[in-house]
Each structure stands twice: as structure tokens, then as C-alpha cells.
Design goal:
- The chain is mainly β.
- Helices cover about 0% and strands about 45% of the residues.
- It has no helices and 7 strands.
- The strands form 2 sheets. A 4-stranded antiparallel beta sheet has the order 4-3-6-7, with no helix packed on it. The protein has a 3-stranded antiparallel beta sheet with strand order 1-2-5, with no helix packed on it.
- It starts with 13 loop residues before the first strand and ends with a strand.
Length: about 110
């Protein structure tokens, strides 16, 4: 689970994520995308081995790039994508179901 607030669910699709050489941008590309209604957004989370998940931002239309400037990836064990309200979680805590999750290594 991304946080204690998000219920784990089976992966509904597949995303390939990579980080630019300068570690300033994360690129996410769906291989098996999920449909997202207009009132929802896909939000990307850095999940540490211990502690709460940190939002890395909303994925534009479910794929694309996320700027990582100032976002700490240290101690990140997993990247997860949850289905959130349009624009992402308003309080920085994952609330929606986990649609994608995978191990992360720099």
C-alpha cells in the first residue's frame, strides 16, 4: 500500500517509469493504461520503506512527465500511482485505490 490511507488493489494496468540522467524529470509511459474519468486524476507517489508516501505530482492525462525539482527520492522503495480527485489529493495523503505500483531504484 502507498500509505495507510490507501487500500491496496490489484494492478489494473502497467506503467514504465524512468528518471532523466540529471534526476530532474520522471517520465511515465503507460503500457496497459487505465481509463480515468474527467473528475479524477492519477497521482504519483514515492513510497519509502518506512513512513508516509510523498506525492511527486499528478500525471498529466495518466502519462507524461513530472518535474522532480526539490522532491526527495532518497529512501524511496516503491513508486505508486493512485486514483485521486481531479487535480490530486488536496491534503498530500493518498486516498484513492492503488492502480500501479513497482519497486524503485536510482
Amino acid at each position: 500500500a502507498a500509505t495507510g490511507d490507501a487500500a491496496a488493489s490489484p494492478a489494473a494496468g502497467t506503467i514504465v517509469a524512468s528518471i532523466s540522467g540529471d534526476r530532474a524529470t520522471l517520465v511515465a509511459r503507460p503500457i496497459l493504461p487505465v481509463s480515468v474519468k474527467a473528475d479524477k486524476s492519477l497521482e504519483l507517489w514515492a513510497v519509502p520503506k518506512e513512513g508516509a508516501a510523498r506525492s511527486l505530482g499528478v500525471l498529466p492525462e495518466g502519462s507524461g512527465t513530472v518535474a522532480l525539482r526539490g522532491k526527495v527520492l532518497a529512501n524511496t522503495d516503491t513508486l505508486a500511482v493512485t486514483l485521486e480527485a481531479a487535480g490530486g489529493s488536496p491534503d498530500g495523503k493518498a486516498k484513492g485505490p492503488i492502480l500501479y505500483a513497482g519497486k524503485f531504484a536510482l
